[in-house]
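#dry-run=false #mode=assembly
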Amino acid sequence: DAGVTQSPTHLIKTRGQQVTLRCSPKSGHDTVSWYQQALGQGPQFIFQYYEEEERQRGNFPDRFSGHQFPNYSSELNVNALLLGDSALYLCASKSGFSTDTQYFGPGTRLTVL
Amino acid sequence: AQKITQTQPGMFVQEKEAVTLDCTYDTSDQSYGLFWYKQPSSGEMIFLIYQGSYDEQNATEGRYSLNFQKARKSANLVISASQLGDSAMYFCAMRGYGGATNKLIFGTGTLLAVQP
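#status=ok
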């Protein structure tokens, strides 16, 4: 039973560039959330996708956007990268919009120079 | 606003001993869920245990148990018989507002070091 997978593992970008991170949910899961975890902090919720729509959004600017595909996989896009966007980006999935437990992937570590 | 507080930045425990990691929460919701996750140095957040606000029994999962005291708004994690592999960052989290929303709100974490 494959867990949540994310790609790439690590990424280095420069300020102003754009980046796309990818996530495949755990088998049987249809809801995907994205979190940003800065160094030494707990994860912060970015947004959640269910049925290919953004259902809830955290306090992040419009530079952060996403997409969910028919196979439930998801992308996180960040435009006009800032140094402060350097963080571990975690994807979490669960089965059904109203269930509780979310399972996380290994994350993508983004470094912005 | 909802908030999770973890007041222990770091903890030491001897191998085979039990350890309690503290978590307090603040919410005005009647229905909510509380979670504990483990984050090794590799970065992946590993789900450990879940407690629903209406569950009368404290949750247990193997060596993990959640000491849920609703009136005190605390949800402490107890790890029995600590192992070297338990060394990691531990996060307490709460499901956000309402039953249909699923945002997890995390604390700042506790770094646990298990000593041989």
